Amino acid sequence: MQLRHGGRAWGPVPRSYGYALPHKVRKTALISALRRRAGEGAVLVYEPSGAAKPSTKAMAAALSAMGVTGKALLVAGAAEHVVTRSARNLPYVTVLTAAGINVYDIVNAAQVVFTPAALAQLDGVQS
Fold it and tell me: What is the DSSP string of 56-95?
C-alpha cells in the first residue's frame, strides 16, 4: 500500500496495556488487608448516635473519644447519609460505603472504623 505524501502503511496503533486483577485475587487481598488491620487492633466499630442532622463537630468528638488518631477510614452503610455527611469534611478521615471499600484505602489508613450497617453489608461485597 502506498500513501499520499508518504507515511507508514501499517503503523503503530495505540492500545491499552492495562490489566484487571481476577475477582478472587481482589477478594483475597481485601480479606487479607482487613485481617492485618484487625490483628494490629486498628479496626473499630462506631455506633451512630441517631442524630437527624449531620454534624462534623459531633463526629470529630466521637472519633477522638474512640481514640482515632492520624489517618482513618470510615466505612458506612449505603443508607447512612448522616454519618457520611458528618465525616466527609474531616481532613484526616476518608469516607467510603461498604460497596466501595478497597485494599488501598485500608492499607493507607492507620485505623479502620466500621458502622454496624457497613459490617452487615460487607458480607455481600464482591470486590
Answer: HHHHHHHHHHHT--SSEEEEE-TT-HHHHHHHTT-TTEEE
Q: For residues 92 and 87, give the distance between their C-alpha atoms in angstroms, rounded to a whole number.
A: 9
Beta bridge partners of 113: 44, 74
Average pLDDT by stretches of 10, the chain with 127 residues: 71 91 94 95 89 90 93 93 93 94 95 94 67
Taking residue 52's Cβ as centre, other Cβ atoms within 10 Å add up to 5
- Record the cell numbers describing residue 53, joined without a space: 442532622
CB environment 35-48: b (16+ within 10 A), e (fewer): eebeeeebbbebeb
Give the domains, in start order, of the chain with CATH numbers. 42-122 (3.40.1370.10)
What are the φ/ψ torsions at residue 42 (nearest 5 degrees)? -105, 15
Amino acid 85: pLDDT: 94
Phi and psi at 126, nearest 5°, equal -115, 70
What are the beta bridge partners of residue 94?
73
